[in-house]
Input
Amino acid sequence: MTAVNILIYLLRHDLRVSDNPVFHHLATVKDHGFTHLLPVYVFPAHQIGISGFIRDGSKSPYPEARSDLGGYWRCGPHRARFLAQSVWELKESLQGLNSDLCLRAGSFDDVLQALLKGFSDKQQKVGAVWMTSEEAVEEKRDERAVSRVCSEVGVDFKLWQDEKYFVDDRDIKLGNAQNLPDVFTTYRKSQEPLRERPRLTLPKPDESSLPAYPDQSSVAAQAEPFEMSTTYDDLESCLLKPVESVLNDVPKLPDGAKSVHLLDGGEIQALNRVGHLIRTGAISSYKDTRNGLSGVDFSTKLSAYLALGCLTARQVHKEMVKFKTARRTRSRRYLAMEPEKTKELGPEGYKGKWKTATKGGLDEVAQTIQRFLSGTTGMGLIDASQRELLHTGYTSNQARQNVASFLTKHLGIDWRYGAEWYECLLVDYDVSSNWSNWQYVAGVGNDPRGEARIFNPVKQAFDYDKDGEYVKTWVPEVRSLERLENVFQAWTASHDELERHGILDNVMVKEPIKKIDFSVEGMPKAGRRPYMRRRGRGGGNTGGNAGTGSGGGPPQGAPGGPNGHAPNPLHHEAHNRQQRPSDPYGQGQYGMGYRGGFGGYRGQQQYRGYRGRGGGGGPRGGRGSYNTGRWNGSYPPQNPYDNSHLASFGQLPTGDVEDAIEAPQFVLQLSHRAGLVTEALHRLDEKNRLDFFHAIVRLARGGKLFGMHLPPHPRVLDLGTGTGIWAIDVSDQLWEGSHEHAIVDGLDLSPIQPRDYLRPGGYLEHVEIGWKFFSDDGTLQPSSSLAIWSEELHRAMRRAGTPLDVDEETQSKLRITGFVDVTESVINLPINTWSDQPNEKKLGTWFNGGLSLAADVMSLAPLTRIERQATGDILKLVRRMKEESCRLSIHGYCKL
Output
């Protein structure tokens, strides 16, 4: 019998099984010598409150995990919940590999001593203790404490390289921290070549490839007075209990406000988020949207996953390279590793006579800090960001810079109050990023401009919150004010207006902490303007002539022409762009939504289609949906349960053409007779439609992007650039050839985001499916699987803040917005073919098939992530629900 040799792996910010060097080594190297593996996660008492694990009212042997200056909890409720989710998901992932994760609370050295003693008492050998090395001060202190414990008992201790970063530390070759440049740009330029050859990601271990988990009886129990949780709900409750008071006495969550960080923690959720960013194309627009304030996808929201090690930067890079369109946007430039500047810089970057709540002016400074933290300063952008942070644990990078500048440069208060508050509340807190960025903005870090860099929060609000939407969302007191300058500083409104709106006596009006004089003279007015993208290597999409970039209207029979058929694009000549095609249906508002009909193909002297400026034209309204490229017709199902006639886009014999679009978004039926695409059932948003037909045209042209021979180093103008895909492909082709100095410009009339597409005379059609089941004859019982599935799904989505219920206020909201002649129609959707009416029977065939296909994907995410149900139980419920939906004795229906 082989002697027991146990390896203890202490995890910290490496909460993942894939791209994990320790797990990879143990799963692939056969002679590592360990018979058992004990992965351990310790909730460190000095960094997170652990008194919730005390069950009997005893006192904790550790001091509370509070910050040095402000006395704030070091890990507030938002990050505590995200951490609990991440740790528990790792535990479940390891269980899926026939291993487990041991959870403990306390200090690393205390926990390790107890585990080592427990194994020793059972006469089981511990061969080594491993950790991943980290660079921050407290983390280094923990490593030294673990090393001392191992040294005392004669156990080997090893630190593994932290591989969360895109560029591996071992490849940097700087020697020591003294060789780091003082300016980040200098550092970045010296290291950028390493981006071209990052280390490869490491695969997830195979099932049962890790050493066995030790016998539970030999693993020492959690040391008293703590009692470790055995369920996720209890774990979350114990971590949240000490910090419940953080959100006491804060402004209530405004109506209509919701988090832009509706993401759960964990490795699986992190990889799903990366997949979402790539599938939707959001990653491609990161450079243009990263300074936004509102919305789920204006930034990647990967920071919390990267901070806890649920995800690595090179995993993100790998997925972007796999999807070449995203890679071509050069988004990976933002994955370059920043030099790590920890808390203790010089000492803690402290200099100057900062105001603090422990020196002169105690009452005034303390009150100012409290109003700053709670978002009642009277500075709209600052208050909106602070309230968003309080309620959600997240606020944008642009807002964070303004908040830091306001506290330090405008109020002159010690920057450490802000850094500690962010440590408490940020769901994506990272020690190096948080402390070095606060130092940078405060002027005591590595900013060569130092104290001279000052953000004007009023000007910044005008620049980045052009309609005041962000401030009005989070500061409801100013929603009724009409002028933006009043929204951003309420005290600037007239006495009569403030009195009329009931905020004359509001503290933000009566006693603003800071008044900033700012003139709106010369501020740009909102409205449409020509939209231009310019890239050296990249650009827009749709064709144009090199040099002149001329386009034109289509001849008869061109895509979008009266007959609606797609001719061979190689056979078209150029047309003057003033020769607009006539309305294909003889009615509607042509300039409102016509986009070149079926294809909008691009290339040398090829007609792309007049883009238009709005939407709402044509007999179907909206965005000119008479456009034949939008598949307004219907296709009878061959069999709603049979997908064998469908093929994935990857099967098209197009070389690398398919790389230009998001393959998973499209399901195609191929015509074997003509070798052409004859049907497209895909997402009908404008971006995917344009990119989709770009790929079709490249296929039709044998992969060519243009037909002429280009002179050396040409300038290319892409008129009507749309999503930018044609110009990106052209710039890539030129750079990969001998035209490295080529310039590709993309010019468009306006962004393609779905807004401002209607003008008076257009109309909107809004469709909702209510996923509640009804029956008029009692054949659908409340105890049926159909009813239970529907109720559980609705409950989960309501908890998530995105209810599935049909919005009963839609009509009134449309009228308030300015719509007239608003009507509502309700159509019953039979769950199967139980009806005797031919039309309803056919509708039941379609809906039953759609329900069968959609039920799994609709159920798994909300019921596992929100309701915390087991996947097996969910699939059993869905299976029973599908079986019931096919019973003709149940006369059920949904409402459309």
The two ends are 67 Å apart (CA to CA). The longest helix spans residues 838-866. The chain has a mean pLDDT of 73.
